[in-house]
Amino acid sequence: MTALAKLERVMPIGALAERTGVKVETIRYYEQVGLLPPPERSEGNQRRYGRRHAERLAFIKHARDLGFAVDNIRTLLRLSDTPGIACDEAHAISVAHLEEVRDKIARLRSLEKELERIATTCSGGVAACDCAIIEALADHGQCSHAHH
Amino acid sequence: MTALAKLERVMPIGALAERTGVKVETIRYYEQVGLLPPPERSEGNQRRYGRRHAERLAFIKHARDLGFAVDNIRTLLRLSDTPGIACDEAHAISVAHLEEVRDKIARLRSLEKELERIATTCSGGVAACDCAIIEALADHGQCSHAHH
DNA sequence: ATCTGAAGCTTTAGTAACTATAGCTTTGGA
DNA sequence: TCCAAAGCTATAGTTACTAAAGCTTCAGAT
Known about the structure:
Chain A is mainly alpha-helical. In chain A, 63% of the residues lie in helices and 5% in strands.
C-alpha cells in the first residue's frame, strides 16, 4: 500500500484540512454542530479521517461557498444520505437561496449607486468640501434610495 | 410651547425610536458601544432625548443602511464632530466601502450563475433526477466558479 | 390619591458561523 | 530518547444586534 493510499484511510485533521481547504478549527466546529460525523480516534485520542469524511466535507464546503446556511446544509446532507427520496426539498432550498442571492444583489446595487454618488461628490481634496460625505450622511433628504 | 416642540426636547426612548425607525434596544445598544452619547435622565432614571440625539441617530441609521461598519461610523461621527478638518479620511472610508460593495456584488453574481445552473438542472420532479442538486454539490468538478 | 397598563430600566444570554487563545498531550522523524 | 509540530478540550471573542427576565416608572383615568 502506498503512503498516499494509507493517508486516504487515516488522515489526521491537518491533512484533511489541507486537502479540502477547510481550516482545522472549522472542521472541529462542523463536527460539534453535527455536520460531520465524529471520526475514529487514534490511541492518543486524535481524529483519524477516511475518504468518506473527505467527500462529505467537500460537499459541505462547496455548499458553504455557495452561501447555503449551515442549517440548510444539514438538510441537504440528510437528503443525500437517503438516495432515491424526493429531491423536491433540495430543489426548494436551492430556489429559495437563489432568490435570496438575487435579492441581496439588488440591494447591494442600490447601495453601490448611492455610495458612488456620495464618494465622488467629495474627491478628498482639503478645501473642496466640508464635508460632502458627512453632509450626505447627515441629511437623508438627498438620498435616493428607497426603503431602509 | 406646543406639545410637539416639547417632545423635541424631552423625547423618551420610544418616541425617538419611532421617529428614527431605529428600535429601542438598538438605541440602547448604540449608547453602550459609544455611538450615541448618554442622554439626560428623568428623575426616575429614564432616558430623555433632544433634537441633537435625533440627528445623530439619523446619521448613524443612514450610514448603517449604507452598510458602513459600526467602527467606521464611529470615525465618521468623530469627523463630523470636528468640522473643517480633513475629509480625506471620510473619503477613504467611503471609497473603501464602495469597493467592498462592488466586490460583494461580483461574488454574488458568480454565485447566482452557479445556483441558477444547479437549481434548474433538477426541476423538482420526483423521477427526473436523483438528485442533480445533490450531485452538483458533491461533485465540485462541474463547478464553474473560480476560487473559494 | 390611587390604580393600572404601557413603557422603560438593567443584566444576561442568544444569534450565525466561525476564529482565537490557553494550557495541555500526542506524534513521528532525527 | 528528544523535541518541535500538530492535535486535544474548553472557553471566550467576533459583529451587530435581538430577546427575555424581572423589576421600576410614567401618565392618564377614576
